[in-house]
Design goal:
Blueprint: H1 3-7, E1 26-28, H2 38-42, E2 48-50, E3 56-58, H3 69-73, E4 79-81, H4 88-104
Antiparallel strand pairs: 1-4, 2-3
């Protein structure tokens, strides 16, 4: 370990409180993001895009399906999704009904 690494303070693994960004469905913590592009490259709905500098931007929050893929693939843990998956319960009920109806007839 070099002298510079020894002097560098440990990274605090604490996200800013929700009160600091109450209106955001997807929060990108700029201080931790290194602009790798994984989040917007893998977003299935195009919710995240990049600005001219390659920094991720939440450009279409209403299209977010809360798959949490961006949050899971971020190597810097710089993304937090504050949204519940939509339609999950309804999809299970619908699939169960169609399977049961098809098997019984």
């Amino acid at each position: 370990m070099t002298e510079q690494e020894k002097k560098k303070p440990a990274r605090a693994w604490r996200y800013p409180p929700r009160s600091e960004h109450p209106d955001e469905v997807i929060f990108i913590y700029d201080k931790w993001c290194k602009n790798c592009g994984l989040c917007y490259g893998l977003c299935p709905k195009g919710v995240l895009t990049s600005d001219k500098g390659g920094h991720p931007v939440v450009s279409n929050p209403d299209a977010c399906i809360a798959c949490y893929l961006c949050e899971m693939v971020c190597p810097d843990m710089a993304i937090t999704v504050y949204k519940e998956p939509r339609g999950k319960k309804g999809a299970k009920e619908q699939d169960g009904a169609s399977c049961a109806g098809g098997a019984g007839e």
